[in-house]
Amino acid sequence: MPSALQNVPLREQLRIDRLPLRLLTLFLGLTGFGAGIGLILRAGLGAAPWDVLSVAIAGRTGLSIGTITILTSFVVLLAWIPLRQQLGIGTLANALWVGVSMDLTLHLVPPVEGLLPGIALLVAGLALNAVADAVYIGAQLGPGPRDGLMTGIHHRWGLPVGPVRAVIEVGVLAIGWMLGGPVGLGTVVYALGIGPIVHLVLLWVTIPVRRGAAPVPATAALAD
């Protein structure tokens, strides 16, 4: 998926065309993304790899899951330094806002009881998360911290994106599981369902960049 701001200095990113619209869709996308994660967690059937880790750390520290998500995002951003990745407007917004949206959702939505209600909430959370992910990516304001790590490794050492992502997420999932994070049906459903839904929705929500309006040509990037 094209990103208008891959490795562009932050001060130059304010020159991108239709910035107000992009900022609006960025906010809506990140809000829905965090809310979708919150619904998936409330389903009680497992979580995505990074959220398995966040839940595990939150349980051991007493901090909220959203707070751990924010702190983890900034730890991941430290790894961008040797990879020579440039922060995007969307990168910083992602690091700060997704965790807040998660905590708000977890505060407003109580856990469900029973398998069928859990599955229904899981499907709703996955659909919201995937659509919001596409909206966020479609704003083309820079990759999220975790996907920037993946693409940064790819560009720095020429390693294929797919295996890099797989190694990172399997490693994170393994650590989260060993620390007591929730691995289950939701983990599998998320892994299989997120990609196809995002790909389909992206065709309708991406805001195109006019030739010459962005500082550099677009390159590949994904949301967190």
Provide the descriptors you would attach to this structure in a database record:
224 residues, mainly alpha, two-stranded antiparallel ribbon, 9 helices
Task: List the topology elements.
Blueprint: E1 2-3, H1 19-43, H2 49-61, H3 65-78, H4 80-83, H5 89-108, H6 115-138, H7 145-157, H8 161-178, H9 185-205, E2 219-220
Helix pairs in contact: 1-5, 1-6, 2-3, 2-8, 3-5, 3-7, 6-9, 7-8
Summarize the structure.
This protein has 224 residues and is mainly α.
Account of the 3D structure:
By secondary structure, the protein is mostly helical. It has one domain (2-6, 19-220). The chain is 68% helix and 2% strand. The chain is built from 9 helices and 2 strands, in the order βαααααααααβ. A two-stranded antiparallel ribbon has the order 1-2. The chain is globular, with a radius of gyration of 17 Å. Residues 213-223 have low confidence and may be disordered.
- Can you tell me the residue ranges where pLDDT is under 50 for at least 5 consecutive residues? 213-223
**Major sheet:** 2 strands, antiparallel
Count of helical regions: 9
Measured on Cα atoms, how large is the radius of gyration? 17 Å
Number of strands: 2
Strand content: under 5%
Distance between the first and last residues' Cα: 13 Å
| Spatial strand order of the main sheet | 1-2
Q: By helix and strand content, what is the structural category?
A: mainly alpha
Shape: globular
Look at the structure and give the mean pLDDT. 88
Output the helix-strand order: EHHHHHHHHHE
**What is the percent of helical residues?**
55-70%
How many domains make up the coordinates? Answer: 1
Protein name: YitT family protein
Transmembrane segments: 21-41, 61-80, 87-109, 115-136, 157-179, 185-205
InterPro entries: YczE/YyaS-like
Keywords: Membrane, Transmembrane, Transmembrane helix
